[in-house]
Structures are given as C-alpha cells and as structure tokens.
Fold this sequence. Notes:
8-stranded mixed sheet; N-(1-d-carboxylethyl)-l-norvaline Dehydrogenase, domain 2; 2 domains; 12 strands; Rossmann fold; single chain
Amino acid sequence: MKIAVIGAGAIGGLIAGYLKLKGIDVLLVAHPESAKIINSQGLKISGVRGDFNIKIDALTHLNLKPDLVILATKTQDLNAALKDNLNYMRDIAVLTTQNGIRAEEVVAQYILRENIISSIVMFGATYLNPAEVVHNFEGSWIMGKAFTDNDDLVVGLSKVLSNIFPTLISEDIKAMKYTKIFVNANNCIPAILGKSMQEVFSDIEISKISIAIWKEGLEIINKAKIKLASLPDFPLERLTKLTSLPIPEAAKIFSAIMVNLSKEPLYGSILQSIKRGRASEIDYLNGEFVRIAKENNLKAPLNESLVNMVHAVEKNNCFFSKAELLEVTRGWVN
C-alpha cells in the first residue's frame, strides 16, 4: 500500500515518520518551507519511543495517485488541501484525522462518501519546528466509515496502521467523535494563557474552569439529544462522574490527570497553531458547543467567552493573564 500523508504538523509528521520506520511506502505533503527542510535534513521525531531522524520524501503537492490519503491538516485547512491535491485523490480511500465533527462533511464535497473513513487520534504529539515533532504520549487510533457501514477496506487499513499504533474499528465513530470534543475542549486554556498544559492545569483554580467547560458542554449535548460513546482511556463514566462532583473536588482529580500526561511540555493543538502564526481549530472544539446550543435554542456562555478569548489571542498575538481569565469565567465557575 502506498500512503500519502497530507499535513506535516504534529500528527501528520508523527504518522508519516513511524510508517516510514516500519518500511511502509509513504510520502509526506507539506508546506514548501517544511518540505525543503525534511528533504535536506530528514524528519526528526523524539519522545516516548526515543529519537529518530527519518529520511522521507516530502512534496508540496501530490504528483502521483496513492492507495490511501491520510488528511492530517486542521479542519480549517481541509478545503485548500483537497483542492490542491484532488487530481490524485479521486476514487481512492481517504482517512480523516481532524478533531471535531465537521471534517467528513468538508471532505464529502470532493470525495465519494463511500471512500471516506473517519478516525480519532488518541496519541499525542507536539510540533516544535518544521521537520521536528515530539511524541508526547501513546494512544490508540480509532477508525470507521463516516457515511456507510464498515467493510473490508476499513479492516485492511486498520491492519496496516496497526504497525504504528494500536487500532480499533468503531461501529459508531460519530458518537465517539462527539466524546473526543470533550477531550480536546480544554486545549483552549493553555492557548489563552500561552503556557503548557502541565503548567496551566497544575493550578487548581484554572482546573475548575475545565470542569465548568465540561459541565456546560455536557448539558448542551444532553439537551440536544446527541449520542456519546466511550473512548479508550476516556470512558463516559469519567466525564459524567467528574461533572457530577463539586467543582473544587473534580478540579483536583482533573489536575492530577493533566499534569501527568507527558514528561515533555504539552501545549495542545490550539496553542500549537497560534505559535505557528496560524488560525486555530477553536471553532471546531468549544465552538461546536456554541453552535449546537444556538441550533437548539440553548446558550453556551462560558464556551462562547473562551472561543472569543482564543480569537482575541489569534488577532492580537497577546496572551491573557490568569487574573483576566478568572475574571471572565468567574460567573460560571463559582
């Protein structure tokens, strides 16, 4: 199987690099600056599996038709990636890796629905520089057909990708993707403060905001009658239990989990984008709670405020202080 990975950020770089190490035929589609460095210096991966410098072919656009395309850009960059590479993507399998729930609908504007496979990435990585990625923590890779029933294509793909991460096939990938929004919803806080997850969530006062995010989001999801499903290492019971506890008690548990996620500093997808000077995926994470609330005549004031704060950081290139964050969120945390 010849695999093309489009997007050389944290997840795309990690996937492509590990596939290459396993001897799988893979190429990486990257921005011109990244492609130039990767081709000349190799792709550097460090972290939980050790340090590697991997020689891999990097292109700025597809120039051949692979058997599989793995889309590893952010959701907001999908349209451009698909338009730029569509001539070599027709009638082949396409695997999405984006957070949130809207990537598949974007891809379906260009690719036959029966060829779209959705996936959820449970492992974590950090983009440091072009051609340099840290693998922060291990995790599984969940996949399933986005619009049709799972078939032999999904089974075969799962077997190939199990060479680099444990794979699971889901019969209800959409319900799992809604749950994954909760996993990622607290990425907004490091982005607002400009600090690592470990530093941010070691503070119990800040961790209280995280529980409040979940409480508001879960209330909206339940009222909208949206189905959730447990994820590996994130059972629904964790979400429902923590949101049912008093916020100070739940915050202490949450803090302990987050501080121990990775030995290396972990910044989250939103802050990584901001550090690279690019728009973040905030509208597809906390913004999803806001969108669902509006569609169901509900309100999401906490998540809406946090979305606005992230957009302010993107616009002004200036982070908020802890005091400013606590002031904005005070009404929903206390």
